[in-house]
Structure prediction request, 114 residues.
Amino acid sequence: SLTHDWKINDSVSVIILAYATGVSGDEFLITIKNKKEIISTAHISDETDSDPGPGNPDYFWSDYKLINDRTIKVSDHKETNAGDDNGTSRITSTETWTILDNGKAIKKETKKTL
Prediction:
């Protein structure tokens, strides 16, 4: 389903499409030129359902934040001991995507944390 759409200029527009199956969900950033030519795509959100337990104590997911109409920040998360009272959640990396006037989405920086 379409979750966001906006124009960058007269010839370039941006959409964010979500795909969900009931146990997982993904969102994709897509830039389009002249209403028909796909210029760039980026996977910006991953919400896969997981059943953490003794053999699988960690849960991973990613999400995004629209900073402005040209900048998207994607964060990867890790929850350790998910479902446990002592569980912790932290961001493991961030990516900053910028959309240029020509519709190309470029990854400007990636920061990893350990």
